[in-house]
Automatic annotation (TrEMBL):
PANTHER family recorded: VON WILLEBRAND FACTOR A DOMAIN-CONTAINING PROTEIN 3B
Name of this protein: von Willebrand factor A domain-containing protein 3B
Superkingdom as given in the UniProt entry: Eukaryota
Length: 207
């Protein structure tokens, strides 16, 4: 799936886009039972001709009543469409909460710098962090334009001096660099801040 936000995804695949919201469906399977103000009579007059002719549906949100005129086939068509929408939503949720997206979310920027601050991670946790970072590089960074890695340490460690165009070669190179890093004691908060400032100094990176 493309690396887009959920709001953008809903614009493309949501109920409103596919005319499957409750209001949109009701307008296609019936008509609203109205009460209008008649100026000459000076009062509200309700249309009664539909009473008892059609099944009616009352919306809890605003109390409006709809007379349902659609045939069974059309109702079943909307049932199928809604079931398909539910399945699509499930797939999206499963995708959002799996693999690297579970930790990093969905990367939407075209150019990023990942700042590595491993803190007081034990050797086993250090490897888990590198596993997660390798995953995000392979799954998501491969779909953007440019990237770089900076490690917060006594002396800042940079994979490249500036953000580098994404390619199969550069991603493999970054993963290799990541797994060659030594386990170190925690960097100070000052070093972490310096690493962030260094990342932001790259003109290609947006905040």
């Amino acid at each position: 799936q493309p690396l887009i936000s959920s709001s953008k995804w809903l614009q493309l695949h949501g109920l409103k886009r596919n005319k499957l919201t409750l209001s949109q469906i009701l307008s296609q399977i019936g008509f609203q039972h109205r009460k209008d103000y008649v100026t000459t009579l000076g009062k509200l007059v309700a249309s009664r001709y539909a009473d008892g002719l059609f099944p009616q549906y009352k919306r809890a949100q605003d109390g409006s009543v709809y007379n349902l005129t659609a045939k069974k086939e059309l109702i079943l068509h909307f049932v199928d469409c809604l079931m398909g929408a539910i399945e699509l939503y499930k797939q999206r949720m499963e995708w959002l909460t799996s693999e690297s997206r579970q930790i990093f979310g969905v990367i939407q920027e075209r150019c990023i710098v990942i700042v590595l601050d491993f803190g007081t991670a034990a050797p086993a946790d250090f490897d888990l962090c590198r596993d997660a970072l390798s995953m995000v590089l392979v799954e998501q960074v491969t779909q953007i334009a440019k990237f770089n890695l900076i490690r917060a340490a006594q002396d800042l460690m940079k994979w490249q001096q500036k953000s580098t165009p994404v390619s199969e070669h550069t991603v493999k190179s970054a993963v290799t660099w990541l797994w060659k890093l030594d386990h170190m004691t925690a960097a100070s908060h000052t070093r972490s801040a310096e690493a962030l400032l260094e990342a932001m100094s790259d003109d290609a990176v947006s905040s």
